[in-house]
């Protein structure tokens, strides 16, 4: 993963005679303490001091994990090699990175060269839960290429221990604001993960964030009452409006939930009683002609995933979002999306004249 900001519009289209030309381009690279804990041990009934509480990792170990990630990520980016990257990335982050490598075939030589420049995370702040409370930790940091200024806005990054013991980055969201909620700490100085992300805190449960983001695409009225207006909500709302405007009058676009392959949430409590979450959302875009003589011509980005660049009555395009959000403690308040990034992860033609998704019965 190497990103500081991605493109805004998930798709654009224009009519050319009776063929609808879709240019649904992929997204372009557009506090608390150190979590080390402070427990020195307390006297037990037997007079012996208990062992100092430990985090899921120490601050020093967290730094080593990030250094290791940078090394292999930069190596993988240099060759656009997903096999190397799989050593240090998993989940939604890895899925997005693989799609970025695929899209590079459409990039200019300069764009590819810029992406392959090594980068590092600076101004690192680790938010480490107590051992046994989670198998992951969060880091906020800025990305920086050699000889350049650091990124303007921070990334919120999650590293998780895998079943084999290796640590991988599994979630990442770059903020579109410098503001960050202050994270809570327990009495020993550790970050506090939410034990139940399905439990409502404030206006909604963290598990409801993915649905809330999807409502922005669908134009659901409740979206305005649950999520505060921000730069992120504004550009997401524009996507379906712009796509339908450009496909009209011979086509239309519909947005719905995609297959939730990597939909996982990581949430920490904030000092004010709210929470900070990083979550993923799969969005499926269905572009289709609205008459028997209209068809859709795939974009260069879509062709990366297709066997043929031929026009078809309809196409399904899958997008994977990673988003960071603050849920305030008061139920009357609104959720604040701090930032969201997306990548095109698949494209397929509809299986029939009605545009059924390939491999489904509907």
Describe it for me?
The chain has 362 residues and is α+β, with helices and mostly antiparallel strands. It has 8 helices and 12 strands. 22% of the residues lie in helices and 28% in strands. The chain is globular, with a radius of gyration of 22 Å. It comes from Streptomyces albiaxialis.
What's the layout of helices and strands?
Elements: E1 13-16, E2 19-22, H1 59-79, H2 82-85, H3 91-103, H4 109-115, E3 119-127, E4 136-145, E5 155-161, E6 167-174, H5 209-218, H6 222-226, H7 231-247, E7 251-257, E8 265-269, E9 275-289, E10 295-297, H8 300-303, E11 314-327, E12 336-349
Helix pairs in contact: 5-7
Task: Supply database-style keywords.
362 residues; alpha+beta; 5-stranded antiparallel beta sheet; 8 helices; 12 strands; 22% helix
The mean pLDDT is 85
The major β-sheet equals: 5 strands, antiparallel
Rounded Rg: 22 Å
Residue windows where pLDDT falls under 50 for at least 5 positions: 4-44
Domain DUF8094: 54-348
Protein name: DUF8094 domain-containing protein
Keywords: Signal
Pfam families: DUF8094
């Amino acid at each position: 993963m190497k990103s500081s900001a991605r493109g805004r519009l998930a798709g654009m289209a224009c009519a050319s005679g009776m063929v609808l030309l879709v240019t649904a381009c992929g997204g372009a690279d557009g506090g608390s303490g150190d979590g080390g804990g402070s427990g020195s041990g307390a006297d037990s009934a037997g007079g012996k001091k208990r062992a100092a509480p430990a985090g899921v990792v120490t601050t020093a170990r967290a730094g080593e994990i990030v250094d290791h990630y940078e090394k292999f990520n930069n190596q993988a980016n240099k060759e656009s090699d997903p096999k190397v990257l799989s050593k240090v990335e998993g989940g939604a982050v890895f899925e997005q990175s693989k799609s970025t490598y695929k899209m590079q075939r459409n990039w200019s030589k300069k764009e590819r060269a810029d992406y392959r420049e090594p980068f590092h995370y600076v101004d690192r702040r680790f938010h480490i839960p107590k051992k046994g409370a989670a198998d992951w930790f969060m880091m906020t940091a800025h990305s920086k290429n050699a000889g350049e200024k650091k990124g303007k806005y921070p990334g919120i990054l999650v590293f998780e221990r895998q079943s084999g013991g290796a640590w991988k980055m599994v979630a990442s969201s770059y903020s579109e604001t410098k503001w960050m909620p202050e994270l809570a700490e327990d009495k020993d100085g550790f970050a506090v993960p939410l034990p139940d992300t399905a439990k409502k805190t404030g206006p909604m449960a963290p598990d409801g964030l993915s649905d809330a983001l999807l409502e922005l695409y669908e134009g659901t009225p409740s979206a305005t009452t649950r999520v505060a207006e921000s730069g992120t909500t504004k550009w997401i709302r524009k996507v379906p409006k712009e796509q339908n405007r450009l496909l009209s009058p011979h086509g239309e676009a519909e947005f719905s939930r995609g297959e939730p392959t990597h939909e996982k949430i990581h949430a920490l409590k904030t000092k004010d009683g709210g929470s900070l979450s990083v979550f993923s959302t799969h969005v499926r875009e269905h572009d289709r002609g609205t008459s028997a003589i209209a068809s859709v011509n795939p974009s260069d980005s879509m062709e990366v995933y297709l066997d043929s660049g031929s026009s078809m009555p309809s196409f399904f395009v899958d997008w994977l979002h990673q988003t960071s959000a603050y849920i305030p403690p008061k139920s009357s308040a609104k959720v604040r999306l701090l930032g969201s990034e997306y990548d095109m992860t698949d494209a397929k033609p509809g299986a029939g004249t009605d545009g059924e998704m390939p491999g489904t019965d509907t």
